[in-house]
Structure formats: C-alpha cells, structure tokens
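Hi L.,

As promised, Large ribosomal subunit protein bL25:
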Amino acid sequence: MAKEIPDLVVEARAGTGKGAARQARREGKVPGIVYGDGKEPQPIQVEFNSLLTKLRAGRFLSTLWNLKVEGQEDVRVVCRGVQRDVVKDLPTHIDFMRLHRDTRVNLFIHVTFENHEESPGLKRGGTLVVVRPEVELVVTASDIPDHITVDLTGKQIGDTIHINDIVLPNGVKPTIDRNFVIANIAAPSGLRSDDNAEAAEGAEA
C-alpha cells in the first residue's frame, strides 16, 4: 500500500533577492526556493504559522511533500534546508528540492504490529515493548510504503525482533547497515519479580 503524501500549499513569489524576501516576511510569509530535476529554480513563499506548525510536528526534513502552487502542476519535493533567526530560532528561509519519480530518498516509515493474539508470550501476559515505532528507510519517490509490518505469530517472552526479521517491500532498505532492534516481548512484572527472587535465593544458598 502506497504511503499518502501530505500536501504543502505555497505561493509563487514575485522577485528575488533580499528586498523581496523582506517583503514576504513583512506579509507573514517565509520566503523559499524550489530547485532540482533539471528545471529552473522557482521562488516561493509559505504561510509562516502553517510552516511553523509543521516544523514543530517533527520529521519535516525527512517527509516527502506534494507541493501545491496555484495554477501549476503539483510536484514532489523534500526540504533540504531551513534557515532560522539566530535569536528567535524561527524560520526565515526554506529550500525544497524537486524529486523525479525514480529518485531514491530517505524517509521515516511507520511500523505496525499484527497477530498479537498468535503470540504465546503476549498470551502469558508479556508486554510488547516498541523500540522503534518508525524506521528510516531508503525508498523510491514513486512507490513509498505506507508502513512496514511485524508479524508477532509465535513470539515468546524474551524474544527480540530485529530489522532483518521484517520482510521489506521490493527496492526498500534501511539506512543503517546493522541489524538494529525494532521491538521485544518483555516478561510481565510479576514474572520478573519471581525470577529476581529466585536469583536472590540462589545467591544466598
């Protein structure tokens, strides 16, 4: 299932240079530029409050956006830089790069867990501890997965799920080479307490 690409509405900006940028800021906009994909750079401006909300939500620079400019075709972009005021730490300029459909890009993809009822460890009262609810993956701009799936069937207490245990879609790979942990099945607190007590008794003996 393809990942839904969020819209980012911007306006075409008339003029370039410091004067035009200052004018945009006076109007409550953040000036920016869209470049790449063999096309001419396009000056744009983004509504300040809308941009600030998206920046504070996180993952802005690792999200693929559907850039919408009135009167023009939508284009897929990623943010390649946000300049900020050194005192207020608020955005003053933003750069976007256009992506071709075949472009490979790093994005954070959500991890979902299925077949909880088929896990003996969870049936015994174990707890699913999610270490990485999202995983940064290298994907193709035209075919971004909505999520990756972890099958909990047969998972016992103490089992650990690594990235190599997950079947990734074709052409998708992690940005990290090592076999990192996604989640584990932890023992219920009562069972852990019993184990600790047995260990202590064994030490005393």
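The chain has a mean pLDDT of 87.

Thanks again for sending the construct details.

K.
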